[in-house]
Write a structure and sequence with these properties.
mainly alpha, 0% strand
Length: 288
Amino acid sequence: MSALFALATSLLWGLADFGGGLLTRRIPALTVVVVSQAIAVVVLGATVVATGAWSEAGARLWFAVAAGTVGPVAMLCFYKALALGPMSVVSPLGSLGVAVPVSLGLLAGERPGPAQLARVAIAVTGVVLAGGPELRGAPVRRRAVLLTLVAAFGFGAVMSLVSEASTSTRGLFLALFVQRVTNVLVGGTALWVSVRRGGRALPAAGGGAVVLGALPALGFVGLADVAANGTYATAALHGSVTVAAVLASLYPVVTVLAARGILKERLRGIQAAGAGLALMGTVLLASG
């Protein structure tokens, strides 16, 4: 069951990344972050009220606040990198953040056996190769790589913090709500500062009409990201953090395939081989 939740996480994050990357090509990245997370706050707030999750308030929520502070920075860096593209290169590098929860799991006492470590290595290698990362090239490409690595560390930190923020389903709803409120506050402040310094909150072409027209897509991105955090926390709570983190990190394969199928981005031989390795590692890990 833990493996299924972790795989659901990879699917949701992959689709959210693909949608976010597309949106930032038309709408400023900070606006995408703030609006998508604001929509998630409304939905989560209603869920918290309906389930009475306020009763789960406690000291653990500080982990949610920390995740909400780190999250917007990671998302902004990642969306900017995706906008620089190509998605099929940027997204797999973002999965390197898996090193954070895996390392913390090992420090906490998890000791995967040799067979499990081999499966982890297969899956992680496949994810990296699926992007066919190109570390050489134009300055824009190098900037995209740097932004992606910063985002990867932030995503890994968020994964670890969210998994520590609750120990029950209702507590998870409250933790995700607190995390998203913090996301909006931090992201909104950054957007205000950006505008004060001459940046744009709305697209140069179309303005607010473009944002209004994109609300369904923005809502999908925000809610998919929330759902992914929830399924990952559930997977980590009921199983090995190391295995859950690796399976959840397979989301770039989803983004790569979406970019190939919808945007017709060219899939190179090394990417196809990487996707195959990632799938093999997934099957091995899920089978125990």
